[in-house]
């Protein structure tokens, strides 16, 4: 019967209209004046429920209890908040909900993170910037044992040493976060050489730069790019005017992948040249090299040799694209490439400057009285150093002589420039800092190593050196308390120092720390003690350190002990020990964000590729 309510065990069934008592009861609850009264009523109701029902109630009201403050704010304000977060925290925020995911993936946030580390997006070229060939030929021992690239020390007089998304679901986000925190790659193949090149009947493209010396040399072999790729090109069909929208999140993640590759020593080793291959390769010891990126974005490698030539290598095809020769009558000991010019220095006492665009010799300098061991230049000046104990400076590009810097007591083995400062390292164990504008000697670091200094790199305020004492040393020229050394002057065990031990007879960085506690840069222990010079820890070179490079995160060194070592720039802890690439002394190394290149007495050019399987075509490599 309509309008009649039948009560059955507390259940009231209605044909559509609630009872007057029910309405009155609900209205009474809503009419409570105090929120506290309502809260007390709700609490009593919940307390009257069996425990098994409380979880169900909690689940039903959970949505009313959550309030996304960040998500409710205007996007501009939310992004401003997110802009203070780290990369890992942003990835964690992307796991919260879709709104946070959209905010955490905003390109402006990742662009800020990238630019804080000077990581810029480069429009990919149609040719992958690094794809080295894999050539394997036997390499015997070098038939010459001398090294013209270093001068004598003032104390012993012997020529020792010339040294690489957007999240659709939670699982993908978790995987991405894990990858960002640590990409531990299993692709380690430190000695993986693979087979010969593939013959290809396709003629060379018209854009190839041809050999300009020697005259009458045979046509270049038509060898195609080899089978292995570090990664496939980003866009195989890119036109010359195609534009890719920068993905700064991808850029950041790629840099972090490469960083972790270095930390985990995950690389692929290949040889650009071995003895006698390719056919137009160097025919003798390779003393020097430099990576160079043309304005077009194509990266190449220049090498200088005892065969008196400089060769330009296409890293995509593995071919020699240019042979520069005919000017040096002795070994090419040092090269420098910058802004479309190449400078080469030789044992014939000459410095030759080449215009790469015009394919012609620009000028020859013949002012030094002995072998020119190192040459460097920038937009304003060219600096060279020699066995004749001097450093010479020239204005650039007109190459007018400026200063002859006399102060070293032995051969000046290495020189480095940064704006208006010049740093020189000598066999007399000292580093000297010069004012490039006036030629004035600003500071001398005497007895910087226990033996002659073989190599130097300079990025103010830090000076990095390698020595024939087998060690590296990095100092802050403004504050000697900031720096490190690989010297075995300290050890990292719990034993007390022997009572008759004296420290090394030169003021290492650790020695001037004025009472600060010493720390092992390998294990982090502060329980370190002096040890005799004859005791070597596991994290040192076993022979002269012939080449050093100072990077943003890492320091790389190459030694006569046939190894290349990677060090943490801040602490000096050894990160990687690269061996198996060379069979004779390493003379020069270079590295960028994706690879290390090395050359030496065995006529081999090795490429230690840390970017294998990673697309790096949008990275600025330098």
Automatic annotation (TrEMBL):
<feature type="region of interest" description="Disordered">
    <location>
        <begin position="132"/>
        <end position="164"/>
    </location>
</feature>
<dbReference type="InterPro" id="IPR011047">
    <property type="entry name" value="Quinoprotein_ADH-like_sf"/>
</dbReference>
<feature type="repeat" description="WD">
    <location>
        <begin position="579"/>
        <end position="611"/>
    </location>
</feature>
<feature type="repeat" description="WD">
    <location>
        <begin position="279"/>
        <end position="323"/>
    </location>
</feature>
<keyword id="KW-0677">Repeat</keyword>
<dbReference type="InterPro" id="IPR050995">
    <property type="entry name" value="WD-F-box_domain-protein"/>
</dbReference>
<dbReference type="InterPro" id="IPR001680">
    <property type="entry name" value="WD40_rpt"/>
</dbReference>
<dbReference type="InterPro" id="IPR036047">
    <property type="entry name" value="F-box-like_dom_sf"/>
</dbReference>
<feature type="repeat" description="WD">
    <location>
        <begin position="405"/>
        <end position="444"/>
    </location>
</feature>
<dbReference type="Pfam" id="PF12937">
    <property type="entry name" value="F-box-like"/>
</dbReference>
<feature type="repeat" description="WD">
    <location>
        <begin position="328"/>
        <end position="364"/>
    </location>
</feature>
<dbReference type="Pfam" id="PF00400">
    <property type="entry name" value="WD40"/>
</dbReference>
<dbReference type="InterPro" id="IPR001810">
    <property type="entry name" value="F-box_dom"/>
</dbReference>
<dbReference type="InterPro" id="IPR019775">
    <property type="entry name" value="WD40_repeat_CS"/>
</dbReference>
<feature type="repeat" description="WD">
    <location>
        <begin position="541"/>
        <end position="577"/>
    </location>
</feature>
<protein>
    <submittedName>
        <fullName>A Receptor for Ubiquitination Targets</fullName>
    </submittedName>
</protein>
<keyword id="KW-0675">Receptor</keyword>
<feature type="domain" description="F-box">
    <location>
        <begin position="67"/>
        <end position="113"/>
    </location>
</feature>
<keyword id="KW-0853">WD repeat</keyword>
<dbReference type="InterPro" id="IPR020472">
    <property type="entry name" value="WD40_PAC1"/>
</dbReference>
<feature type="compositionally biased region" description="Acidic residues">
    <location>
        <begin position="143"/>
        <end position="161"/>
    </location>
</feature>
<dbReference type="InterPro" id="IPR015943">
    <property type="entry name" value="WD40/YVTN_repeat-like_dom_sf"/>
</dbReference>
């Amino acid at each position: 019967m309509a309008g009649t309510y039948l009560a059955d065990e507390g259940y009231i069934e209605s044909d559509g209209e609630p009872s007057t008592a029910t309405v009155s009861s609900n209205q009474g609850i809503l009419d409570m004046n105090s929120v506290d009264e309502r809260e007390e009523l709700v609490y009593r109701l919940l307390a009257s429920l069996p425990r098994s029902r409380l979880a169900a109630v909690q689940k039903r009201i959970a949505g009313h209890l959550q309030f996304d403050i960040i998500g409710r704010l205007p996007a501009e304000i939310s992004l401003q908040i997110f802009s203070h977060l780290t990369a890992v925290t942003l990835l964690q925020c992307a796991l919260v909900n879709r709104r946070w995911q959209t905010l955490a993936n905003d390109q402006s946030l990742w662009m800020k993170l990238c630019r804080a580390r000077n990581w810029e997006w480069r429009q990919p070229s149609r040719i992958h910037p690094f794809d080295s060939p894999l050539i394997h030929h036997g390499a015997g021992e070098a038939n010459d044992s001398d090294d013209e690239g270093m001068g004598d020390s003032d104390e012993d007089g012997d020529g020792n040493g010339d040294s690489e998304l957007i999240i659709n679901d939670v699982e993908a986000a978790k995987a991405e976060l894990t990858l960002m925190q640590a990409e531990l790659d299993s692709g380690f193949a430190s000695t993986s050489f693979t087979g010969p090149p593939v013959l290809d009947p396709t003629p060379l493209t018209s854009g190839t730069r041809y050999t300009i010396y020697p005259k009458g040399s045979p046509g270049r072999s038509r060898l195609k790019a080899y089978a292995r790729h570090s990664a496939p090109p980003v866009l195989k069909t890119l036109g010359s005017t195609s534009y890719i929208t920068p993905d700064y999140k991808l850029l950041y993640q790629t840099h972090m992948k490469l960083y972790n590759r270095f930390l985990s020593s995950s690389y692929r080793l290949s040889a650009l040249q071995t003895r006698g291959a390719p056919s137009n390769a160097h025919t003798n010891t390779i003393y020097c090299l430099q990576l160079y990126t043309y304005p077009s974005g194509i990266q190449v490698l220049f090498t200088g040799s005892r065969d008196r030539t400089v060769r330009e290598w296409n890293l995509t095809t593995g071919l020699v694209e240019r042979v520069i020769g005919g000017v040096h009558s002795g070994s090419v000991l040092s090269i420098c490439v910058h802004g479309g010019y190449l400078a080469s220095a030789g044992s014939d006492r000459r410095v030759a400057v080449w215009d790469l665009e015009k394919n012609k010799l620009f000028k020859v300098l013949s002012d030094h009285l002995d072998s020119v061991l190192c040459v460097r230049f920038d937009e304003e000046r060219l600096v060279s150093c020699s066995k004749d104990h001097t450093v010479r400076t020239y204005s650039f590009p007109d190459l007018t002589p400026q200063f002859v810097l006399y102060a070293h007591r032995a051969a000046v083995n290495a020189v480095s420039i940064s704006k208006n400062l010049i740093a020189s390292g000598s066999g007399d164990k000292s580093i000297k800092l010069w004012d490039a504008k006036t030629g004035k000697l600003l500071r001398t670091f005497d007895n910087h190593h226990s033996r002659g200094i073989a190599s130097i790199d300079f990025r103010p305020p830090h000076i990095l050196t390698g020595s024939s004492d087998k060690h590296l040393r990095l100092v802050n020229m403004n504050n000697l308390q900031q720096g490190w050394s690989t010297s075995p002057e300290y050890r990292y065990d719990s034993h007390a120092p022997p009572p008759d031990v004296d420290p090394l007879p030169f003021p290492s960085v650790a020695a001037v720390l004025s009472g600060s506690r010493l720390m092992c840069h390998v294990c982090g222990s502060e329980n370190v003690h002096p040890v005799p010079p004859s005791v070597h820890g596991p994290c040192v070179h076993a022979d002269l350190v012939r080449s050093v490079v100072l990077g943003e995160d890492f320091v790389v060194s190459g030694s006569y002990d046939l190894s290349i070592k990677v060090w943490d720039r801040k602490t000096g802890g050894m990160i990687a020990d690269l061996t198996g690439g060379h069979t004779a002394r390493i003379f020069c190394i270079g590295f960028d964000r994706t690879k290390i290149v090395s050359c030496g007495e065995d006529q081999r050019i090795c490429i230690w590729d840390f970017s294998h399987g990673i697309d790096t075509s949008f990275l600025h490599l330098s």
